[in-house]
Specification:
Layout lengths: L9 H14 L3 H15 L9 H5 L3 H8 L12 H17 L10 H5 L4 H19 L19 H8 L35
């Protein structure tokens, strides 16, 4: 009877996933998010508590989102109301243009399931809301759409007369000119100095 030396279990998979999510939680990004949120809402967030604990009721997130969009929220100790606040923030973030893959699920924050995704979403929200709030966002600046290049008729005519040699491939071993639709005979030429 064959007995495997290593047998995967569900708990090891869970541990691997938890480790992978914990690896995405960057303390520097957390502090940047805390400072940005403090600046937006106009009051210092407590540094003696974990940021996820401060954000858990959704009120701080809603207050930040309220600066960029119209938003209703309630301050309450009831878990259902707190999760509604988080969901309201997520809707506001999506309406500002935060991509779906950068949003988090309500349980990611409320139950601290995926703290790295929560912080990543706050960073993304800051970039998308920065124009409306007037406070610079975190991370790289968003790209702006540029007007498409319009060619003049003369440029189009000049471009039609150019034959692009790159589209023929490497033709140094071929005989004669390139003929469209014809066969291409390849002849190997011996290198100088070789016999």
């Amino acid at each position: 009877m064959y007995t495997p030396q290593y047998q995967a279990s569900v708990s090891s998979l869970d541990n691997d996933l938890r480790g992978k999510m914990a690896g995405k939680y960057d303390p520097q990004m957390v502090e940047e998010a805390r400072d940005w949120l403090s600046q937006v809402i106009g009051e210092e967030l407590p540094r003696d508590q974990d940021l996820l604990t401060v954000l858990k009721d959704g009120v701080v997130l809603c207050r930040a989102a309220e600066k960029a969009t119209s938003l209703k929220y309630k301050k309450s100790a009831m878990p259902f109301v707190q999760m509604e606040n988080i969901a309201s923030f997520l809707k506001a973030a999506e309406s500002l243009g935060v991509p779906k893959h950068e949003l988090f699920q309500t349980v990611d924050l409320f139950e601290s399931k995926n703290p790295g995704q929560v912080i990543s979403c706050v960073h993304s929200f800051s970039r998308h809301a920065s124009a409306k709030i007037g406070i610079p966002g975190l991370g790289p600046k968003l790209a702006t759409k540029q007007a498409p290049r319009v060619q003049t008729e003369q440029e189009k005519r000049e471009g039609a007369n150019i034959i692009n040699g790159y589209q023929y491939g490497f033709a140094s071993g071929s005989q004669g000119d390139v003929v469209f639709g014809g066969k291409r005979n390849i002849v190997l030429t011996p290198k100088k100095g070789s016999s």
